Amino acid sequence: MSVNLAVVGATGAVGRIVLEQLALRKLPINRLKLLASQRSVGKEVRFADETLKVQLLEPDAFQGIDIVVASTPDEVSAEFASWATDAGAVVVDESGYWRMDPKVPLVIPEVNPEAIHDHQGIIASPNCSTTQMVVALAALHRHCPVRRVVVSTYQATSGAGLAGNEELYDSTRSALTGKTHPAKTFQYPIAFNLIPQIGSEKEAGYTSEEMKMVYETRKIMGDDDIVVCPTCVRVPVTIGHSESILVETADPISVDKARELFAAAPGVTLVDDLDNKQYPMPQDCEGKDDVFVGRVRKDLSSPNGLAFWCVSDNLRKGAATNAVQIAELLIQKLAAASS
Ligand SMILES: NC(=O)c1ccc[n+]([C@@H]2O[C@H](COP(=O)([O-])OP(=O)(O)OC[C@H]3O[C@@H](n4cnc5c(N)ncnc54)[C@H](OP(=O)(O)O)[C@@H]3O)[C@@H](O)[C@H]2O)c1
Description:
By secondary structure, this protein is of the alpha/beta class. It contains 8 helices and 16 strands.
C-alpha cells in the first residue's frame, strides 16, 4: 500500500529532517507534496533521486492527500489543519497548537502508540524537551510508577528553528570580533551565554516551554498524578537538547535495575561509564534517532529518587523522527484496514 503525503513546512529546520527521515525509513509514498509559505514557492528540494518544487500552503493544497506531516509555527497549524482534514487527510502536527486539545492524541510511538486510534483527523507530536524526557521516564514508569520529576534542560539553538542557529553563528562571530550582535530570536546574545527563558511567561513564574513539560508529560503517560518541576535553559549548542533529571518513583529502584530498564527500553541507548568518561553529549547524539541516557545514580536527597542525564537530537526524536514514526503507524493502520 502506498500513500499520498504532504510535508508542510518542508523548508524549515524540522521539515528538512522530515524529508530525510521519509527517504531513510523508506515510507511507501506514491506522491509527495512539499508546502511552505510564499517566501519559498518554487524552491527546489532534493528527495531521494528526485528534485521537487515547494508549493504554496493554501486551502486547496490537500486534494488527494492521505497524510500530512507538518512543522510550522502554531498560528499556521491553527489555520491550515482544517483545510487538510476537510480534504480527508490525517495531520501529524509538530507545533504546540493542538497538543493539549482533548480531541487530539499526543503520541510518542515508543510510549503510547495505542493513542493514534482515537484521532479525529489530527495527531500531535510533543514538544522536543518533553519527548526525550518521557521516552526515558517511560522505561522506569513501566516498572514502577513515576511520581515526581525535577528537570533542568540545556536546549540547543535549533530548537528555535533555522533562525536560532543563524543567530548563534552571527552572535559568536560578533563576540569574537568584540562586537555585540542584536538578539532577535533569543532574549539576549546567545554566544558564550546561557538564557534561563524559553518561551513566554506562562504561569506562577514558569515559562510556556516549562509548562509544556508539565502538561504534555501527564497526557502522554496517562497519569495526572505525575508532578514535574522544570527549568528550561537555552545554551549555545546548535543541535541536541540535554537534560538533568531527578525522578522519584512510588518504590525505590536500584541503580543497577534502572540501568537494566534503560538498556532494554525501545528508543533508548544507555551510555553510562563515568570511570571511562562515557556519557551522552550533544555532539555525539546529533544525527541519531535514539534518546541517550547516562550518569545514572541514586538521588542522595530522596530515598525513592534517581538522578540521570539525558540527551537527544531535538530535530530528530524531538521532532521529525517522532512525527515520521507516527506516520508509519498510520500507514500500518490503513494497510490493516484495507487487507
Ligand atoms: N526545532 C525543533 O527542535 C522543534 C522540535 C519540536 C517541535 N518543533 C515545532 O516545529 C515547528 C517548526 O519548527 P522549525 O524549528 O522547523 O521552524 P523553522 O525552521 O522556522 O521552519 C518553519 C517552517 O514553517 C514554514 N512557515 C512559516 N510560516 C508559514 C506560513 N505562513 N505558511 C506556510 N508555511 C509557513 C516555513 O516556511 P518558509 O521557509 O516558507 O518560511 C518553514 O518551512 C514549530 O511549531 C516548532 O515549535 C520544533
